[in-house]
Specification:
Number of helices: 22
Shape: globular
Helix content: 55-70%
Radius of gyration: 30 Å
Strand content: 5-15%
Number of strands: 14
Structural class: alpha/beta
């Protein structure tokens, strides 16, 4: 801010013009030119009334004489490149050494982030991993930006999907339980969801072979009729159906909790569709009475969104049962009224773009002005080299299996590299888990959420390149340097010490460090952990170049070594903070 003020002073002195500080555009100097920061002169020519080169030269000369932080300057067309004095870097280092230097004041805004939202008919899979990692990281980034954040999960614990698993278990389960099968509860229930689909396809095939068209064959298949009957019985509170539902959901919840714990995600509140859909039905009935909605001859309830570019949307089926939209209407109303939210962010795949456009429009039509504060973080699907996944066909990649796969790959890679010196068996296992899960999380989160992505487990654990293990290794390298310096009794630079003349690598590293708050705010504004992930990589890469060019422990001048130790410590902490916002642990040894 001081430099911007000096530039405004330059225009007052040189041209007698007051310029708004917002019009001063500073940016990092391009690598092919000498300088640390560049003033873009073109927007300011209306104040100087002179040519770009002359304006830049006038301002540069004023800064050289009046701003101690400017050591020299050069002009390239309409750009004023400034080389900053060592005192500037010393002041920057003093700021960087404060652990909370980058934390902003509270914004006073309350945001809710919903993620995970699993169905209770199957275990979490690779798609859920991206969802959970995105949701958790977005919430942590928003908290770091100064907002109050509530992390929530909405469990889809009712509906035709769970009835399919329940019915298949009734028919073919032979009283199998997680304990008797030695399976996680969510995996066991998912097994019967797949079995239902297999049996249903057999029935459909038999009817089509007898001349029935596919749609009729599916709708009139006995298994589908039974599943629909079970859903009606559930909504009618038939005791035996409710009891089976509670039992099988309990199996699933235990499985989910195990997966969440290993993945490192959590929630402040958990909502259950079984408890929120009735509120949604009540609100739909209210809107129907007000004429916002309409009822068809078969008794189903709809809303016409054609004037908004969508179509007619079903809100209650003809038999009175609700749909997902009904439940989301009730849940949104409940959350905004109980939490007084400024923003509600739904982390849901882009196949639901239509759903959330419709949700906001419906709520607005129902009279809820806060509907404008609903935001759908629409993310792309995750593919594997083997192709697209389908839950009902049993071709999904189970989240638990994938986590175990990357941890096993990390074990093999680490043992190949022989980087286990000084670690006992338990510490080695913890390291494998840290590297494997860090690799998985980083590979997922470094991609812009809006983009579809291909997850390659082998590529994710590479120690070189834009990967989690590379950044983790950089943190471990710095930790090793700091431990060795402590063993040697070396002193670290303090705020009362003069700064040495800096190497370009040191200046470059400080420039990257100082960008951390800006990257954080951008990541929060764009709801994109990818910005934080790639910043972490940039910082790690910059440190490794610095480490190559600038001896730390072996620096000839003790004051230079002290400065570089302090700079290394700041980088270590910043990597830990940045990666922590992604849910990634960074090891001290690796």
């Amino acid at each position: 801010m001081t430099l911007i003020n000096k530039i405004t002073e330059a225009f007052a002195s040189c041209y007698g013009k007051e310029i708004p500080s917002a019009s001063v555009q500073l940016q990092p100097t391009r690598s092919e030119f000498e300088g640390d920061v560049t003033l873009v002169v073109f927007p300011l020519l209306k104040f100087s009334g002179k040519k770009p080169e002359d304006t830049a030269a006038d301002v540069g000369q004023f800064l050289l004489e009046q701003a101690p932080e400017v050591e020299r300057f050069n002009v390239v067309k309409g750009f004023l490149n400034l080389v900053l004095a060592d005192q500037h870097w010393s002041d920057a280092m003093q700021k960087l050494q404060s652990e909370d230097w980058w934390r902003p004041a509270s914004s006073g805004l309350h945001m809710m982030v919903e993620y995970s939202s699993p169905n209770t008919n199957k275990p979490l899979h690779l798609g859920h991993i991206r969802n959970n990692l995105l949701g958790w990281s977005v919430a942590e980034i928003l908290k770091a930006c100064g907002h109050q954040v509530t992390k929530v999960n909405l469990v889809n614990d009712r509906g035709i999907h769970i009835c399919k698993s329940m019915l298949a278990w009734q028919k073919w389960g032979n009283s199998e339980t997680p304990a008797s099968s030695h399976m996680k509860g969510d995996a066991l229930v998912g097994k019967y969801y797949v079995l239902f689909d297999q049996k249903l396809k057999e029935q459909i095939r038999e009817r089509m072979e007898s001349g029935m068209d596919k749609e009729t064959a599916e709708n009139e298949a006995p298994l589908m009729e039974e599943a629909r009957d079970m859903l009606r019985d559930w909504e009618a509170d038939v005791p035996e159906v409710r009891k089976l539902w509670e039992t099988m959901n309990a199996w699933v919840y235990a499985g989910f909790e195990s997966t969440y714990r290993r993945l490192g995600v959590d929630f402040n509140e958990t909502y259950y569709e079984s408890k929120t859909y009735l509120l949604g039905k009540a609100k739909v009935e209210e809107a129907l009475q007000k004429g916002v909605l309409y009822r068809k001859e078969d008794g189903s309830v709809w809303i016409d969104l054609e004037q908004d570019g969508l179509d007619q949307k079903l809100l209650l089926r003809s038999d009175g049962t609700s749909v997902y939209m009904t439940q989301d209407i009730g849940t949104a109303i409940q959350r905004f009224e109980s939490h007084h939210l400024d923003r509600h962010i739904y982390v849901v795949g882009n196949e639901q773009d239509y759903h959330f456009k419709a949700l906001a429009l419906i709520l607005k039509r129902m009279g809820y002005q806060w509907a404008d504060h609903i935001h759908h973080l629409s993310y792309g699907m995750v593919d594997l080299p083997s192709g697209k996944m389908k839950s009902r066909e049993g071709t999904v990649v189970d989240a638990d299996d994938l986590m175990s796969e990357v941890v096993d790959a990390a074990r093999v890679k680490t043992e190949e590299l022989g980087k286990l010196e000084g670690l006992d068996a338990s510490e080695a296992e913890t390291l494998y888990e840290t590297i494997g899960l860090g690799a998985l999380k980083y590979f997922i989160l470094k991609v812009d959420p809006r983009k579809r992505m291909l997850f390659n487990p082998e590529e994710s654990i590479e120690i070189n390149g834009n990967t989690g293990p590379f950044i983790q290794y950089t943190h471990a390298r710095i930790s090793s340097v700091l431990r060795k310096a402590e063993e040697l009794g070396m002193k670290s630079w303090g705020s009362s010490d003069p700064a040495p003349s800096l190497h370009p690598g040191e200046r470059g590293l400080i420039k990257v460090l100082l960008r951390f708050p800006e990257v954080l705010q951008d990541a929060g504004a764009q709801l994109s952990p990818a910005l934080m992930a790639n910043y972490s990589y940039e910082l790690a890469k910059e440190y490794n170049q610095f480490y190559h060019d600038c001896p730390v422990i072996k620096a000839e001048d003790p004051s230079v070594a002290a400065w570089r130790l302090a700079l290394s410590a700041v980088v270590q902490r910043t990597i830990r903070d940045a990666m922590g916002l992604l849910g990634i642990h960074v090891p001290e040894r690796m």
